[in-house]
Each structure stands twice: as C-alpha cells, then as structure tokens.
C-alpha cells in the first residue's frame, strides 16, 4: 500500500499491513523521483560511488513516468 503521508487512512491501515508513505499523492511521477532518490541514498550509505541514471515507472502498457539524471 502506498499512500500520501497526510492520508488519514495511514494510521488505520498500518495496523494490518505495511504502508509506504510519500510526500504527496503517490503519482507515477512522484514515485519515479522517490525510487531514484532511495536508490541513490542507499548507494551513498554503503559508500558506493554510483548513482541512478534512469528510472521508469509504468502506469499501463503505454503510459509511464521517467526520470533521467
């Protein structure tokens, strides 16, 4: 489950399952940036000299959001 951190259902649903929260509505555009940032942060925390080049999040067969750095 992925919800906006301000969604009132976060607290309730967290009692029954893991809930991932975002700093806004979890659109594919926001998720694309969040995923790239999380991977970059994980690499930095492991002392790796690497970064994300591209992330693509698909909404459907013909629609996606992409961030290229």
Low-confidence stretches: none
Q: Largest beta sheet, briefly?
A: 2 strands, parallel
Across the major sheet, the strand order is: 1-2
Beta-strand percent range: 25-35%
- CA gyration radius, whole angstroms: 14 Å
H/E topology pattern: EHEHEE
Helix content: 25-40%
Helix-strand category: alpha+beta
What is the helix tally?
Answer: 2
Distance between the termini: 27 Å
Query: What is the arithmetic mean of pLDDT?
Result: 95
Number of domains as seen in the coordinates: 1
- Cα shape: flat
Give me the count of strands.
4
What does this structure look like?
With 69 residues, the chain is α+β, with helices and mostly antiparallel strands. It has one domain. The protein contains 2 helices and 4 strands; from the N terminus they run βαβαββ. The strands form 2 sheets. It has a two-stranded parallel ribbon. The mean pLDDT is 95.
Concise account of the structure shown:
The protein has 69 residues and is α+β, with helices and mostly antiparallel strands.
SSE map:
Blueprint: E1 2-4, H1 9-14, E2 20-22, H2 28-45, E3 54-60, E4 63-68
Parallel strand pairs: 1-2
Antiparallel strand pairs: 3-4
Keywords, please?
69 residues, alpha+beta, two-stranded antiparallel ribbon, 2 helices, 4 strands
């Amino acid at each position: 489950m992925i919800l906006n951190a301000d969604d009132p259902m976060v607290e309730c649903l967290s009692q029954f399952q893991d809930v991932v929260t975002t700093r806004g509505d979890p659109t594919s555009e926001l998720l694309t940036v969040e995923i790239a940032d999380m991977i970059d942060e994980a690499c930095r925390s492991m002392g790796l000299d690497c970064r994300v080049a591209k992330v693509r999040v698909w909404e459907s067969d013909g629609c996606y959001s992409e961030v290229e750095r």
